UniProtKB/TrEMBL annotation:
This is 4-diphosphocytidyl-2-C-methyl-D-erythritol kinase. It catalyses: 4-CDP-2-C-methyl-D-erythritol + ATP = 4-CDP-2-C-methyl-D-erythritol 2-phosphate + ADP + H(+). Pathway: Isoprenoid biosynthesis; isopentenyl diphosphate biosynthesis via DXP pathway; isopentenyl diphosphate from 1-deoxy-D-xylulose 5-phosphate: step 3/6. GO terms for molecular function: 4-(cytidine 5'-diphospho)-2-C-methyl-D-erythritol kinase activity; ATP binding. Catalyzes the phosphorylation of the position 2 hydroxy group of 4-diphosphocytidyl-2C-methyl-D-erythritol. InterPro entries: GHMP_kinase_C_dom (IPR013750), GHMP_kinase_C_sf (IPR036554), GHMP_kinase_N_dom (IPR006204), IspE (IPR004424), Ribosomal_Su5_D2-typ_SF (IPR020568), Ribsml_uS5_D2-typ_fold_subgr (IPR014721). SUPFAM superfamilies: GHMP Kinase, C-terminal domain, Ribosomal protein S5 domain 2-like. Residues 68-146 form the GHMP kinase N-terminal domain. Keywords: ATP-binding, Isoprene biosynthesis, Kinase, Nucleotide-binding, Transferase. It comes from Thermomonospora echinospora. One of its GO terms (biological process) is terpenoid biosynthetic process.
């Protein structure tokens, strides 16, 4: 086999409920993941040693060594299969870097699938779930795709019934936000307010909206406990969110740890209008249109 290419989607968190800080440094989460049609592609090809090449638009800060999460995925899988990690990984990025849409985790999931096929591990996808969870909380969902409820630290997944298609606009910011920094700021803000959160629970209004395919109800039910922390670290995002609401978004929130902002539109046409309005408003580096849910990591 000469090479294997895997396409993998970005995610938006429809609900991200963050519980108290645990003794292991993680938080208990209720995380409703939704895969959207912004894709990276990872190609794995035979080589004499592990290498990483990254292509795309804004890829500043993406490592091209063993620190890259896709490279770590290849190393972990090679160790488990008892093979040499001799693979050239080429990552073609469309998912924003450090944008709260799990691009690095998506690349890791794609690398697992591509290397498993390249190294003859077969189609036993279940064998990839454990290494995916070791690599990071968002990596298992990138394998699964669709819409799913994540619990624990986000890696325990249950598919969520979703009717129809939802249309989104994502406002991309200049620069990224560190996920650990946003969680630390969340903890700092809570401590300053003297507030200790209860164990997180899934929003029943959100689950009902997804099952019904009701975009208006879904927009009203979106929520992200990390949003105050992201806004504290990047106050300009308030203007981005306000602009989307002013131009008719059914719902608006920071995606994950940010700084990408997500806006739910009423239809594909409305998403196009909202994309143009946000681009004209000058409140983001760029705005892109997408839809969801879409499948997880898929060989192309």
């Amino acid at each position: 086999m000469t090479s294997v290419t895997v396409r993998v989607p970005a995610k938006v968190n429809l609900q991200l409920a963050v519980g108290p800080l645990r003794d292991d440094g993680y938080h208990d989460l209720v995380n409703v993941f939704h895969a959207v049609s912004l894709f990276d592609e990872v190609t794995a090809a035979p080589a004499d040693a592990l290498s990483v090449t990254v292509e795309g638009g804004s890829i500043e800060g993406v490592p091209v060594n063993a620190d890259n999460l896709a490279a770590r995925a290849a190393l972990l899988l090679a160790e488990r299969l008892g093979v040499a990690p001799n693979v050239a990984l080429t990552i073609r990025k469309t998912i924003p870097v450090a944008g709260g849409m799990a691009g690095g985790s998506a690349d890791a999931a794609a690398a697992l699938v591509a290397c498993a096929r390249l190294w003859g591990a077969g189609d036993a996808d279940a064998d990839l779930w454990e290494p995916a969870a070791i690599l990071g909380s968002d990596v298992p969902f990138a394998l699964l795709g669709g819409t799913a409820l994540g619990t624990g630290r986000g890696e325990v997944l249950t598919p969520v019934q979703t009717a129809g298609r939802f249309h989104w606009v994502f406002a991309l910011a200049d620069g990224g936000l560190s996920t650990p920094a946003v969680y630390a700021e969340c903890d700092r803000l809570r401590e300053a307010e003297g507030w200790r959160p209860a164990p997180p629970q899934a929003s029943q209004d959100l689950m009902a909206a997804l099952a019904a395919g009701d975009a208006h109800a879904l927009g009203a039910a979106l929520g992200n406990d990390l949003q105050p922390a992201a806004l504290s670290l990047r106050p300009a995002l308030r203007d981005t969110l306000a602009a989307g609401r002013e131009h008719g978004a059914l719902g608006a929130l920071v995606s994950g740890s940010g700084p990408t902002c997500a806006f739910l539109a009423e239809s594909a046409d409305h998403a196009g209008e909202l994309t143009a309005a946000l681009s004209k408003a000058g409140v983001a580096r760029s705005a892109v249109q997408a839809y969801g849910p879409v499948p997880g990591a898929t060989i192309v």
